[in-house]
Amino acid sequence: MKRQQVGIEALAIAVPRRYVDLAELARARGVDPAKYTSGLGAREMAVYDPGEDTVALAASAVSRLLRTHQVDASRIGMLVVGTETGVDHSKPVASHVQGLLKLPRTMRVYDTQHACYGGTAGLMAAAEWIASGAAAGRSAVVVCSDIARYGLNTAGEPTQGAGAVALLVSEQPDLLALDVGLNGSCSMDVYDFWRPLGRREAVVDGHYSIQCYLEALSGAYRGWRERALAHEVVRWGSTTPGEQLARILYHVPFCKMARKAHTQLRLCDLEDAPNAANTTAEAREELAKSSASYEAQVASSLSLNARVGNVYTASLYLALAGLLHAESGTLAGQRLGLLSYGSGCASEFFSGVVGAQAAQRMARTDVEAVMARRERVSVEEYERLMKLPGDGPEVLAPAPGEFRLAEIRDHKRHYVEGAAS
């Protein structure tokens, strides 16, 4: 297959200024800390305040992207924000970001919403816009920005989080050249997770949502595999098609979900393999649970997710940032698989090849510096912040180059930018 030179050129992340230690939260709730740290695979959870809304996080991520990678804003022709935490029923988050960063008026600007799939929908629209030639050499910025909120003393409390990942999509895919046209998709009309209008917290049918995730994964992965086999990107042989991907990244509502997802993907290959009739269903299920495969292909992508928590549509791309931060130098030229899932539901499996300049790009992104600036807060402070009204941000100065909601006046949202140091 002739690889399309379209993909992710650079990325940047933004996270709330505070976090809470999950072992400490578990003890405060009278729960064995291992239930959170081992059971969910999490260590820390981002704690947002009303000033760190979806717009502020998205604008901060884009600001960092443009600044650290010296992006010429006049060459951006599309700005898409994927989110399920919009701030208005009509005015998109993307419009706010465009205004705050004084981006060109000649851009196509909009939001995409489909639970945690929205960012991927934006990425595919941008990549296909560029691949089609309609972009005429221009780039796109796709931002995944979300806040996962379930409330104090709820079952979902330890799976909250917030953050944003901004992606520069172009014909110079230094980070990841996408295999345009190989994508597999699966969608169904289900009620596994939803947020009725006017609610800050979602309604979740947890066990059913996991079932929907795994079913959609199976359909999307098999669709990708069919196309990848036809183009000889992968093949049946001594290893399965999935095993021929250097790493596989998954949507991560909580880190242990990635293990369940990887087991399901392996089971798809083992059930469909040409020699499947020679093995029993029990043997295939046991082989699918291989810890060695999980450690080799998945575990290294979860470092940031374990420190930030659930970021809905940004979770897959936070995993990508974590993986490339840790391994971009050794993965150059190798193919990754990526699985996006959004409740309701839609799923897409796609792939891409890590660029030769990925390590240099990630060094400029400086993920560790962003994470190191956070402040650990007590459970008491976390609870105070969670009880603040969404329309009442505290008066705090944002860090240089970052944004913060200052007030809502006459139904208009007003933001401030941190002064340069």
TrEMBL record:
Protein origin, superkingdom: Bacteria
Pfam families assigned: HMG_CoA_synt_C (PF08540), HMG_CoA_synt_N (PF01154)
Matches recorded under InterPro entries: HMG_CoA_synt_C_dom, HMG_CoA_synth_N, Thiolase-like
Database matches in Gene3D superfamilies: 3.40.47.10
Domain Hydroxymethylglutaryl-coenzyme A synthase C-terminal residue range list: 289-388
Family assignment from sequence similarity: Belongs to the thiolase-like superfamily. HMG-CoA synthase family.
Protein name per its UniProtKB record: Hydroxymethylglutaryl-CoA synthase
Lineage, opening ranks: Bacteria, Pseudomonadati, Myxococcota, Myxococcia, Myxococcales
